[in-house]
Amino acid sequence: MSRVCNKAPGLPDGSIAEQSLYERVDGPIATGSAHFMRAGGELHLMHADLELNDQRQAALRVRCAAAAVRAALVEYRTSHRIAQELGFYPVHDERLRVAGGGTAPVRETLGAARESDLVQLDETDVETLALRYEAGGDEAAYGHFVTALTGFSADLDDFSARAAEAHPADWQRLAWQFLTAFDRIRIYGQALAVINILGTTPSAVAGAGHGRSNRT
What's the confidence (pLDDT) of residue 17? Predict the structure, then answer.
């Protein structure tokens, strides 16, 4: 996942200082993403356990997922703090503006990514992200991701503490809610990664738009 989440996989020659800055910020994101995706795996396996009527094992999956999300948040918050302390966000926002010819190419990048099945967003989602970048840049967009994941973590922790004694009706409702919430946050984070990688490389955006699409 680090290859997906890193914002600047290849900066131009002579950008050693910027490369170091990106590495400091992106390192925790890569680790956080590993924890986050592990949580997703546990949640999907939880559904398999419920299909087999193994509530005890499902409760264990929820606790494991909750622990993985907490670990992810530590890394994501570390990245956010480092980015603020080192002045990363203005640097990255400028790279996006330069690549977009004056404004961050959020709509163009996500539009091309949608055509190539790189991200699952509707037009409203794209517009919301574009407005978020226009209002506060990458810091605002990433901050929203951390806030959403913090709320999700709290919900998981709350249920995991009582999962072993939960009624079947609770499982029927919350199991789907947790997966839906996970997917929503994952898709948002995936969109940020697409913007941060393809959005800083105009040629990559153009190439993505010519990819094969499964949409009819």
Answer: 77
pLDDT tens for residues 26-72? Answer: 999 999 999 999 999 999 999 999 999 999 999 999 999 999 999 99
Please report the pLDDT score of residue 18 as a whole number. Answer: 84
d(CA 26, CA 75): 10
- Residue by residue, DSSP assigns the chain as -HHHH-S-SSPPTT-HHHHHHHHHHHHHHHHHHHHHHHHHHHHHHHHHHHHTT-HHHHHHHHHHHHHHHHHHHHHHHHHHHHHHHTTHHHHHHHHHHHHTTSS--HHHHHHHHHHTTS----HHHHHHHHHHHHHHHHHHHHHHHHHHHHHHHHHHHHHHTTGGG--HHHHHHHHHHHHHHHHHHHHHHHHHHHHHHHTT-HHHHHHHHTS-----
Q: How many C-beta neighbours within 10 Å does residue 74 have?
A: 13
